[in-house]
Automatic annotation (TrEMBL):
Residues 11-71 form the HTH tetR-type domain. InterPro entries: Homeodomain-like_sf, HTH_TetR, Tet_transcr_reg_TetR-rel_C_sf, TetR_C. PANTHER family: HTH-TYPE TRANSCRIPTIONAL REPRESSOR NEMR, TRANSCRIPTIONAL REGULATORY PROTEIN. This is TetR/AcrR family transcriptional regulator. Pfam families: TetR_C_13, TetR_N. Residues 34-53 bind DNA. Keywords: DNA-binding, Transcription, Transcription regulation. It comes from Streptomyces mirabilis. It comes from the Bacteria. The keyword Nucleus does not apply.
Length: 200
């Protein structure tokens, strides 16, 4: 076996482990992720699974990074073609709501679930969740700032407050979709976003 092929196969195996772990964590949570279950599902040894990461925490961080990338490609990346400001934010939140209803087979947003799971647990995983949420909040605030500059929103708009309210709508939608299985939640969430982003 050539070294190049070995590196490629190692990377492919690592990717397969992360995909399987993300599926499991979507239903059991990151903390409920076990090496034994992964090894069984993947028909690998426990040592073979953990050997790609070194520790359960490193595996959790790799799964979280994969989830963040999926969210980026599924939500803000799909809104790139929209006009900056309220149009782009409307598109982004619409994509996020759609993503919650798809949810990798379980419904809801994986990142939102992990944020709730780790909000009171200090450590590297919580720090990574905070970084991801900070990046999203900065994105929302930047688009709101653009909307204010373009005259789509009033000059005195409190951007931080509005970003807080928009994200609150998304959190409420996620809970209604995932916990309550409310079929009206996506429609209500879109209506709330539209109201918040409309100029008075």
């Amino acid at each position: 076996m050539s070294p190049r092929k070995s590196v490629a196969e190692t990377a492919a195996t690592r990717s397969r482990i992360i995909d399987s772990a993300l599926t499991l964590a979507s239903t059991d949570g990151l903390e409920g992720l076990t090496i034994g279950r992964l090894a069984t599902d993947l028909e690998m040894s426990k040592a073979g699974v953990i050997g790609h990461f070194g520790s359960k925490e490193a595996l959790q961080l790799a799964v979280l990074a994969a989830a963040v990338e999926r969210f980026r490609l599924r939500v803000p990346a799909r809104a790139v073609g929209a006009r900056p400001g309220t149009e782009r934010l409307t598109r982004a939140f619409d994509e996020w709501i759609d993503y919650m209803t798809e949810g990798e087979g379980h419904g809801g947003c994986f990142l939102t679930s992990v944020a709730s799971e780790y909000d009171g647990r200090p450590g590297p995983v919580r720090d990574a969740v905070l970084d991801a949420l900070a990046s999203w909040s900065a994105y929302v605030a930047a688009e709101l700032g653009t909307a204010v500059e373009a005259g789509e929103l009033p000059p005195r708009t409190d951007v931080e407050q509005l970003a807080f309210e928009l994200n609150g709508v998304a959190l409420a939608a996620n809970q209604s979709i995932q916990l309550h299985r409310d079929p009206q939640a996506p429609t209500r969430a879109r209506r709330a976003v539209a109201r918040l982003l409309s100029a008075p």
